[in-house]
Write a structure and sequence with these properties.
The chain contains eight helices and no strands. With 186 residues, it is mostly helical.
């Protein structure tokens, strides 16, 4: 479980690092007006629904570890693309892959924790996950992003977030060994 937790911790830190500065980046570096920023990000949320709806189909062909690694990899790539090629078109294009990020960070990890915890321990494992992974990654991500933005710019915040996510993906891909407790949950 250590590689799983470390990989997800890095991904959560990356998300908490970039998300507060995404709108700043879109406004400062691309020139997107405030009222259009939420429209751009909402497109990703709408597409996310399709990924979640098709999760069973995806899981028929790709393991949980594979989907998480692909999702974290796509997050790293989409952030890098946005930082390297800041444009409205790129901001719209990367929204196509937002759903993979959500699956890999907020849907599949919770499903996996429920699976390995088993009956009677699901609430405890969710609480421990929140205390040990979600809360510290939020604090570290916010502090890191603030310091990077203060000393550099929102573009570097996006790059660092991409790097953190790529590291999380590599840890999941190479060190995480998926355990299956109940075949009905896999």
């Amino acid at each position: 479980m250590v590689p799983f937790c470390l990989g997800i911790f890095l991904a959560y830190t990356a998300a908490n690092c970039y998300f507060p500065y995404l709108s700043v980046f879109l406004k400062e570096k691309i020139g997107v007006k405030n009222n259009l920023i939420t429209i751009i990000t909402s497109i990703g949320v709408a597409i996310e629904i399709l990924y979640i709806y098709n999760l069973s189909f995806i899981r028929k062909y790709i393991t949980l570890r594979g989907v998480i690694a692909i999702g974290l990899g796509s997050m790293a790539i989409r952030l890098s693309l946005l930082a390297m090629f800041p444009s409205v078109e790129m901001a719209l294009f990367i929204q196509l892959f937002h759903g993979l990020e959500i699956l890999s960070m907020f849907v599949l990890p919770i499903m996996y924790l429920d699976q390995v915890a088993g009956e009677g321990f699901r609430n405890s494992i969710q609480g421990a996950f929140t205390i040990l992974i979600a809360v510290p990654s939020r604090l570290i991500g916010f502090l890191l992003a603030g310091e990077i933005a203060r000393t550099m710019s929102s573009r570097e915040v996006i790059y660092v977030s991409s790097l953190l996510c790529a590291l999380g993906m590599l840890i999941i891909m190479f060190f995480f060994k998926e355990r299956v407790r109940d075949k009905n949950l896999s």
